[in-house]
Amino acid sequence: MLRAVIAGFVAILAGFRTTFGYLFVKKPTIAYPSIKKQHAPRFHGLHELRRYADGKERCIGCELCQIACPANAIVVVGAENTPADRRSPGERYAARYEIDELRCIFCGLCEEACPTDAIVLTPRFEMSDYRRGSFVYAKDRLLVPPQGGVGSAPDERPNGIPADLGAVAQQKSTVDIATGYDATWYGRALKTERRGLAG
Amino acid sequence: MTTQPSVKTVTVTVDGVSLSVPEGTLLVEAAKQIQEDIPVYCYHTKLGPAGLCRICLVEIEKMPKLQIACNTVVTDGMVVHTASDKTMEGRRAVLEFLLLNHPLDCPICDKGGECDLQDFSMAYGQGASRKVEAKVAKPKAVDLGPTIVLDEERCIVCQRCVRFDDIITQERSLVVKDRGHRDIIATSTEEPYVSDFSGNVTELCPVGALTSKTYRFKSRPWDLNRTKTTCTQCSVGCQLYVDERYGDVLRTMSVAEDETSDGWLCDRGRYNIGFYNDPQRIASPLLRRGDEWEQIGWDDAVALWARQIREARDTTGPESIGVIGGGRLLNEEAFLLQHLFRSLGVENLDWRAGRQTVATPVFSGTYEELEAAQTILVFGVPPSQTAPVMDLRIRKAVVQRGARLVTVGPHSSGSSVTETHVRRVADIPSDAFDAERIAVVFDGIDATPMRDLHERFAELKRAGKSLIGFIPGEQPNARGAEAMGMLPRDGGRGTREVFSAAKDGGIRVLSLFGVNPALRFADGALATAALERTPFIVLSELFLTDTARFASLVLPAHGPFERDGHVLDMTGRVQRLFAAHAAPGGALSDGEMLVALADALDIEIPSPSALTARARAPEKRAMPRGEIRAAAPGGEAALRVIIRSDIFAGGGTVYHDERLEELRPRPIATLHPRTAQALGVAAGDLVDVIAGDRALRGLIVRVADAASEGTIRVVDGLPGAPANVLFDGEEVQVTKLEPAAPLAAAGAVAG
Amino acid sequence: MQLEKILTAGIGELDLCDIAVYREQGGYAQFERAVKELQPAAIVDIAAKSGLRGRGGAGFPTGRKWQFLPNNGRPRYMVCNCDEAEPGTFKDRMLLEYTPHQIIEGILIGTYAIGSRHAYMYIRGEFKRGYETFMKALEQARAADYVGERLFGSDYSVELTVHRGAGAYICGEETALLNSLEGKRGEPRLKPPFPAIKGLYGEPTVVNNVETLGYLPHILRRGPEWFAGVGTPKSTGYKIVSMSGHVQKPGNYEIPLGLPMRTLVYDIAGGLPPGRKFMGIQPGGGSSACLFEEHLDLGYDYEALAGAGSMLGSGAAVVFDDTTDFVKAAHSLVRFFAHESCGQCTPCREGGNWLEMTLERMLHGRGVESDVDMLVDVSHSMTGINLCPLGDSIEPFLASVVKRFPEQFYAYVRTPQTAVAV
Q1: Are B352 and B495 in contact (CB under 8 A)?
Q2: What pLDDT is stored for residue B412 in this prediction?
Q3: Of C272, C291, C321, which closes a domain?
Q4: Which residue among C166, C197, C228 closes a domain?
Q5: Domain of C389?
Q6: Integer angstrom CA distances of residue B405 from B429, B466, B471, B669
Q7: Which of C192, C353, C374 has its CB closest to that of B180?
């Protein structure tokens, strides 16, 4: 009888071994959003349209990302640069560039297709909202601010290929992933601004 | 037993397949029979071989070297290999050479996706270049003319554009300049490339060197929704592809195998597509309230219209109602229009709203027959500005088939080919009628020469000669309107009589469909007076035109690419239209408006299928005679006015197409240098052209040797400078406008 | 060695530009005889029997060329090609400047022979002195009633129009020459149709070289058998050879065809400068392949040279000794052909420029080893697929010297210090 009780108790302990064992393991839960976990550098998150260091847009509006996109999430409409309004090196720029992040499957094929390394997927992932429409990211939210450009713009000669294309391609985001984790540069700028107001 | 001369055929073996083709066939054409398309750049079916690009190399047995398929005539027993190792090596080499200096800006190139150089590079190219030196730099985005942008670096010097300009249009303004790898395309005179057919070179260009300004960077080819329809900018009836994206008509492309257009489009048909989404386009019915327009709903608009018609009929009778329109409508709509108003007893029906008085020639012919004619007689306004693509046929007939072109009247042909130009019918060289096949091209305006030559034509016909007529008119479907019955019958009044009656207050309700008599009617003063006196005018239009100034109710209609139905081209062929663009929400097609009106008036209309059947089977009835106009008063007039057509004139679609800013004609008066000197004016001066109490004001003088002496040539159909205040051929005076006082003062100060 | 002078007879001794002097030598007698006594067809026969071949470069039998003209009742034209621009050739210029009447007589006989009444003389634009001499001679001939209406009392009339080129090598190609004559861009035409069927202004046309036509009076005078008896059975008669390069006595020499090249180089042209070693000879102008020591005993005639992989061409022999840098020589020739490409057809337009840039890069010491193979490969792939022979002119010399002296080419890529400023 007693033997049976002991055996039963041992069985319970054995059964709870995993459970009790975890009492002494470091907890993985983090206090999000005060503390944020760092993703792998090549994590496929929110898109970003990059610029060159001189502030010109990298995107030339070629629509190759649009045709590469398996989810039909991208819309690009090109337009011509004029001497008075020069957006990108060369003749063409994207007058309209939109990504529907709800449709996007974050496969990164747009990044692959881009001939100028303009569109990249950053590790940013926070884009929750209450309205569907707000998930259609247009140029105003995709394009990095002028000071966030990388690499030197190609010469105006069409065969001038940017020398640093390889190096820039390695760079996943213009934002330091160790410190910046806000959904977009736009959000971060907004927060900074608010903090400034509050302070 | 057939008596036809048998065409000798030869047998050629292409890639193991034995083909029988007529003697004299080029290898490149023969290979198309088995879908063995040999790659080509410089060769084009309609331009012939040039032997420049060397991509069409094929291996022919018993020949030591590779041969170009585009200039090899097949011979009996020839054995050809189009995919052998040797052929492929030749193509690879040629592609490597072609790409040496071709910039790889495919991502931003408008041709990217439908480019022959891309396609053949993928199929036969070697992938990587062995050249390490920088590519040759040439000018990019060269502004070649009002319609075309040229990228010299992309050019592979196939010379298709140069040959098109030489062989097809005969204008010869494009040339190759410089030599060797520094070759560039340019105009021979360094002047802009101006041609009414310039857009065709962008289609001929196998790479993205020549692109249209209107389509530059607008889209990539894979985004476009394509619809094949019929162009209704003029009465030729060319088939075209309409490419649309996100609700914008972005470009039109010719249909290569089309028998009507021969695969070419004029620039009006190709480029006048930017008005569909113009902010000034009417989007809902507009009712006049004093000097203001009030937007009203369709129900109210139709009810008002119906009430006015009913009241007019009941009080002053159906003869106080007039309907003008049909030349811009579909066959279905034109039929419905006359059916509806005839049901009310209205006989004042007419499509004629401009200068043209007749649309159906007595003896119709096809364009192929026109091309085969030995003598081409052109009366009045030349077709180069009213039916440009038809004019290409005339040029082809003259240059390639040796036809004789005789133009009769004040206008010379305006084509680039040799012609005999005579002023009067009596001056037509008599041997012009000796030909077996004679084509008559008549502008449909003044039928006097037709009357004078009536006996002559009858005689030719009796002699068994082929005599065919064409009337390239102002309105695209004038012939369809005539065939559908949009003409006064049984004592009804035509447009001129309606206007005369209206001027005296005899017309109460006037319904106008897509016409602009205030700007276009031959007697502008009469039209204006008539419109002013008519109490209720309904106008179906896309824009508030000059005629809309007189309208009480303006109804928003559908534009050319927004329609589904049938029209007749000037040869009487039924052409099909398919809607390629969604009309703005507030607009209705003319057919829908008429159905609503019929509903409001309780008139029974034919079923849609019966209507379609009717539209496809044009009525063959006795055709009306054109108006005989009183000859211009004889004697020695110091200065006569000639009213000229221009394909880019007009107060509607062209006027509201912002992409065509550069192409619209300016209000210009053209004078011969001696005439200008006699009048004391110089190029650039501003003048008024005055005839009695009527005046055409503020024209810019241009001096040209090509103008006839003793005449002043003005452009018809320009809003702001309506040439219809003058009569074609009447005597006029010219007064020079002195520079305004402040300008003169400024000049004095500066001096 | 004493050579018999035919075309060059009297040059340097008599003032043959004077029509009186020329007539003393029997000038214009043959033309007069032809018009008065011979039927055009008889002259065509004589030309065919003599075995005379085109001296401009292609070596096509002249009589046969004339026989190709269709009998369609259309006007015909005779065009004399004096657009001599092949590197190394200077024979036509000498004939033009020293014996213009002989050329005029040749043209007139040829024009009469093909039944034409209008001849054109196309003179290279740079030949200013030759042009002036020729025009003076033409005036004299006109004054003496050799050119004009109803000659020698017969009903034969002939007109001779002189046209100056504007300095394009390609206009020496017959169809480009015709385009240039018509006032169009000097670009070769697509063949077929050949000029004999559709030439100048769309009519049947014969284009003959100055030297070819120049032999006609002599053949008429001395009979076709005399001409056929000289030279080899297939290459008959005489040829003026322009000797240049590393020889002691460069200049024009008129030789019977088939003369061994060794005789040509060592006996006639005086051999190489003392102490130099023979390295190669380019026997027929810039577009011919280089021949070497072992070929020197070949006869200088059309067949023997073609058999050795080169050609007689226009008869411009350039001799290279052991001081020659063949990379520079090749670069210089390739640059010429790339510069003179009309740009019509792809391989010639792009390939020539590419080869020039590659050679230039090698000369600047930036070549890599694979460039040498690439030179051969590219020049080979651009050959045989062109519209006209210009594009095929680069490979023969380039390939022959790369094959023979690869070490000279590898020297430029292996030791960059040999590079010099170009």
Answers
A1: yes
A2: 81
A3: C321
A4: C228
A5: 326-410
A6: 11, 16, 16, 27
A7: C353
CATH fold of B9-98: Ubiquitin-like (UB roll) (3.10.20)
| Chains A and C in direct contact, meaning 3 or more beta-carbon pairs closer than 8 angstroms | no
Encode pLDDT of B653-676 as tens digits: 999 998 888 899 999 999 999 999
Q: Cβ A79–B135 below 8 Å, yes or no?
A: no
Q: Which residues of chain A from 139 to 168 reach within 8 Å of chain B, CB to CB?
A: 157-159
Contact at CB, B222 and A67, closer than 8 angstroms? yes
Cβ–Cβ gap A158/B134 under 8 Å: no
| Residue C57 and residue C93 share a domain | yes
What confidence tier does A158 reach under pLDDT thresholds 50, 70, 90?
A: very low
CB within 8 A of C119, min separation 6: which ones? Answer: C77, C78, C79, C80, C107, C108, C110, C111, C158, C159, C160, C161
The CATH architecture assigned to B286-356+477-616 reads: 3-Layer(aba) Sandwich (3.40)
Sorted by where each begins, the domain ranges of chain B are: 9-98, 132-271, 286-356+477-616, 367-470, 640-750
pLDDT in tens, C155-167: 999 999 999 999 8
Work out the minimum CA distance from B175 to partner chain C, whole angstroms.
9
Distance from CA of B98 to the nearest CA of C (A): 6
Q: Do C387 and B130 touch (CB under 8 A)?
A: no
ipTM here = 0.93
* Same domain assignment for residues C26 and C47: yes
Helical axes C406-414 vs C394-404, angle rounded to 10°: 80
Determine the Cα–Cα distance for residues C262 and C248; give it in Å rounded to an integer.
14
Beta strands in B70-166 (DSSP E): 78-81, 142-143, 148-150
What is residue B6's predicted lDDT score, i.e. its pLDDT?
Answer: 67
Q: Does A60 touch chain B (CB under 8 A)?
A: yes
The tens digit of pLDDT for each residue in C17-33 reads: 999 999 999 999 999 99
- Strands (E) across B246-383 are located at 248-254, 286-289, 292-295, 321-325, 349-350, 375-379
CATH hierarchy code of domain B640-750: 2.40.40.20
Cβ distance B217 to A61 less than 8 Å, yes or no, reads: yes
Looking at the structure of chain C, the number of domains it has is: 3
The CATH number, out of the four listed (3.40.228.10, 3.40.30.10, 1.10.10.10, 3.40.50.12710), of the domain defined by the range B367-470: 3.40.228.10
C37 is a domain residue: yes
Of B636, B723, B713, the residue nearest B676 (C-alpha): B713
Measured CA distances, C312 to B61, C55, C208, C333 (Å): 29, 9, 17, 17
> Are the folds of B367-470 and B640-750 the same?
no
Find, among C357, C333, C354, the residue nearest to C280 by Cα.
Answer: C333
User: Which of C353, C343, C352 lies closest to B179 in space, CA to CA?
Assistant: C343
Q: What's the mean pLDDT in B227-247?
A: 95
B380 Cα to chain C: minimum distance (Å): 35
Residues 6+ apart with CB under 8 A from B221: B112, B113, B114
* Cα(B527)–Cα(B352) distance, integer angstroms: 12
Whole-model pTM: value is 0.91
Centre a 10 Å sphere on the Cβ of residue C302 and count the other Cβ atoms it contains.
23
Q: State the Cα–Cα distance between residues C159 and C148, nearest whole angstrom.
A: 6
User: Best residue in C189, C339, C344 to probe B by mutation, most B CBs within 10 Å?
Assistant: C344
CATH architecture for the domain at A2-198? 2-Layer Sandwich (3.30)
Q: Whole-angstrom Cα distance, residue B352 to residue B730?
A: 22
- Which of the two residues, B64 and B621, has the higher pLDDT score? B64
Query: Which residues does chain C have within 8 Å of residue B69's beta carbon, measured at their own beta carbons?
Result: none
Strands (DSSP E) found in B424-525: 437-442, 466-470, 509-513
Residue B664 CA to residue B408 CA, distance in Å, equals 27
Same domain, C133 and C163: yes
Question: Where in C15-112 does DSSP place strands (E)?
Answer: 77-82
